[in-house]
Amino acid sequence: MAETKSSTGHDEAPPSEDGAKPGADISFPYDRMTVEQFRRRFPRARWNDARKAWFVPGRTASRRIGRWLAEMEVEADAHADAKGRDAFAFDPIDSPYLELGKAGFRIRTPYSKTVVDELREVPFSRWDGDLKIWHVPFRSYEELRRRWPEIEAAACRNEPEERRRRAEERKGTEQDVRSKLRSAERKRHRYPLQSDDLPPIGRPVVTAYGIVVFTEISGELVDPNVVTDFYAGVTEDHVWGYWRVPTLEELVRTWPAKTPPVQDAEWWLPAIEELRPARRTARSREARNRAQAQ
User: Fold this and answer.
1) Number of H helices and number of E strands within the chain?
2) Quick one: CA dihedral 44, 47, 50, 55, positive or negative?
3) Strands (E), the chain
């Protein structure tokens, strides 16, 4: 915790007084009730103005402080859960995708990247791979309530019946034809690269397809007239590179880039913001593959 304000009127020890004594320092944002609880738990503690921290004497001070902080965290969580439970009772979410549990909410929806992205932003949410549901504690209700319209709309869009209906409506349309052509092009696992700016082989890089690993640069020139609908800005100076999806181990071993990519770059080294979701996806994919292999 970071000290933001100290109380007045407490005993203040000079900087040298506590230096030779066994003990530990602790600092936390000033709150009258928290200070009172702390003083009752540690009556021998003294405020050190030079270090802006409380000094708790004793060889076991660190362990005692750790236990107190853990108890305070549990108490704060219990209070936040009670507050969230009351908020739900006053303004409930009525949805077939949400169930009320003992410790919070259970959420089960059709798969949707939007749903996953939204629920990952809800504090303390977690995915249960065995039950195929999300758990969200009561303390996170306000954030869940704020994000719920987007979550429910995305879940409804991805119901099997709704997806089939949209597919039937698209059949034979120009959009359907273009979608099938894009899907077929992606399945070729090739990507146009500027011949004088080639990515490293065997290392995760970012492209329009996300993070991939290039396995080969064929040297075959790209025909812009054939693929211009799929890759904007392709010229006769581009060559084909062939790629695959990176493994979790490769993504974990990849050091995040410290500098942003240059403007209009066709590939670049991934930053931590790009590696994190890719690692989560790879972890889920490999866990799913292991489960299917059993």
Assistant:
1) 9, 11
2) positive
3) 23-26, 46-48, 53-57, 98-100, 104-107, 126-128, 133-137, 190-194, 204-207, 210-221, 238-244
**At residue 128, what are phi and psi to the nearest 5 degrees?**
-105, 105
From 158, 160, 112, select the one nearest 134 (Cα to Cα).
Answer: 112
Identify the weakest region by mean pLDDT among 9-23, 68-82, 129-143, 262-276.
9-23
Give the C-alpha separation, 37 to 39, whole Å. Answer: 6
CB neighbours (10 Å) of residue 216?
Answer: 12
* Predicted confidence (pLDDT) per residue in 126-141, tens digit: 888 778 899 998 989 9
The whole-number average pLDDT for the span 113-121 is 92
C-alpha torsion sign, points 260, 266, 272, 273: positive
Residue with tokens 């329009």, as numbered in its chain = 208
The position carrying tokens 């970012």 is: 206
Dist. CA 187–CA 211, nearest whole Å:
15
Question: What does the buried/exposed string (b/e) look like for 97-132 if buried means 16 or more CB atoms within 10 Å of the residue's CB?
Answer: bbeeeeebbbbebeebeebbebbeebeebeeeeeee
Could you tell me the pLDDT band of residue 20, with boundaries at 50, 70 and 90? Answer: low
**Of 228, 143, 140, 221, the residue nearest 178 (C-alpha):** 228
How many CB atoms lie under 10 A from the CB of residue 246?
Answer: 24
Query: Can you give the pTM of this predicted structure?
Result: 0.49
pLDDT digits (tens, 9 = 90+) for 28-44: 777 787 788 889 889 99
